[in-house]
Amino acid sequence: MNPSSKTPFSRFRNDTRGQSVLIGVIFLIGILVVALAIYQAQVVPQQNANTETESFGETMDSMVELQSNVIQSSTQSTARSVTVITGTRYQDGLFRVNPLPAEGSLTTETPDDGEIRINNANGSEEGQGTESYWDGSEKTFDTKEITFENGYNEITAENITYSSGGVFIGQNTQRSLSNSELVDGREINLVSVNGDLDEQGVQSNVPLRTQSKLEESVVVRGDDEPIEISLPSTKSASLWEENLPDEVTVTNESDERVLIALPENTRYELSLSSVRVGDDDGNGQQTPSYMYRVTGDGLTTQDEQSFRLQTQLRDQFNNPVSGEDITVEEINGDNVDIDETELMTNSRGVVTMRGEGNLAGNQNNEQTAEIRFTHDETGVETTHTVIIQPRQTGGPGNGGPGNGGGLSITINGVSTSNVAGEGREYTVNWGAEADDGIDEVIIEIDDNDNTQKVIDYDGETSASDESVLESPQNANNDVTATVVDVNGQTASTEEEID
Length: 498
Known about the structure:
The protein has helices spanning about 10-15, 20-75, 235-240, and strands at about 80-85, 85-90, 100-110, 115-120, 120-125, 140, 145-150, 160-165, 165-170, 175, 185, 185-195, 200, 205-210, 220, 230, 250-255, 255-260, 265-275, 290-295, 300, 305-315, 325-330, 335-340, 340-345, 350-355, 365-375, 380-390, 405-420, 425-435, 440-445, 450-455, 460-470, 480-485, 490-495.
C-alpha cells in the first residue's frame, strides 16, 4: 500500500510521543497512595495515641475534681454537678480516616463487702450523750466506688477509682492521684457515697446531692485500744500509708479491705457525711440514731425559776435531723412544770423545752428531776438531769433567775425593727453576774433557725452589753438569754415579744 494512502487514524495510533507523561502521572499517583497508606498506618495512630494520652491526663484531673466536689457537696444543702472527661474525639484531616470517638464509662460499683466500719470509737464529750451511741461498738455505713473505665483505641490505660479514701489509679501499677483527707492531724473525715451512676461518652455529668449534710462532729477516742477504720479497697496498705500521718498504721485485712488503726487513748474529732450521686432520688432518708444534749447534763436551777433544756436529734452520721416529733416528760416525780410536751426539731435538729422548778411540798429540800426526750417514731431517747434547789430569799439581783451560787442574767430591754427583705432585727440589752466567773453568754431568738449570738468571757464576774441579732423571720419571736459560768452551771431568762 502506498504510504500516502494511510488514514489519519492509523497515523495517530503509531504516535508514541505522550507515553512517558502518562507513565509519570501513574507513578506519582502510586507514590501518593503509598504515602497516604503509610500516613494512615503509622502517623495517624501515633497522633491519635497522643490525643488519647492528653485526654487521659484530663480524666485524671477531673476525677480529682470529682473528689473535691463530693467533699464540698457534703457540707452544702444545694445540689450540684461536676463534669468528668471520659473520652476524646480525634483530630480531623483531609486525607485521614479516624475511628469513632473513644467513649469511656463512669459507673458506681458496690465493692465486695462494701461497708465503712468504725470500731472502738468512744464518745468523750462528758454530759452531752454522745457516749450512748459512740460506745466502742462497730458502726457501719454503706458506700460505693466511682470507677472510670477507658474506651481508647491506641493506648493502654488502667481504670481510675474514687473511693472514700481518695482517688487511685490502676490495679497492677497502683498509685494515688490525690491527697487523702481521711485523717488530718486530729481530725477524721469520712464521706460515704451512694446512688447509681452509669454514664458513657467523651464526658459524663455527675449530679451530686447531700444525703446527710456535715453540720456536726463528735470527739471520740479509743480507750486502751486503737480506733479502727475498715474500708473496702483492693489497694495495698503501703499505698494508703503514703497519704496518712506517720502514727497511723495500715494493714490489708483481705484482698478486698484495708484496716486503718489510730493511736489508742488519743482524742479525734470525727466528721461524717453522705452524698448521693446520679439522677435518681433513691433513699435519702436520714436515720435518727441518738440525741445530743446541747445544754449538757446536770443543770442547776431554783424553785419557781424558769429554765430551758435543748436536745438535738442526730442521724447515724452525727448530723441533725429536722422536722421530727419529740415528746418531753418528767419520769421520776413532779418537780418541774413543763410548758409544752410535744415539740418538733427545727432546721438544726434542736428542740427547746421550757419549764419551771416546782418543789411544791419540798420547798426546803433539793430535788433532782429527770426529763426524758423521746423521738416518737423510733423511740430514740435521752434524759436530762435537773437539780432544783430551794428558792433563796434575797437571791440574785434584779429579780433574775439564779442557781443558788451567785449566777444570774437579766434582759433589761428588747427593741425590734424590720429589715427590708431580710427579716427582723433584735437589739437586746442584758446584764449577767457569776460569783465564780462568766464563761459565756448566749442571746437567742426563738425562731425556726434558733438565731443566736454567743459572747465569750474570761472569767469576769459581771458583764453587760447590747447585742444585735437578725432573724430571717418577719414575725416577733421570744428572746432567751443564758449565762454559763466557768463551772458549766447555767441560768436563763426569757422575754416575750408581743
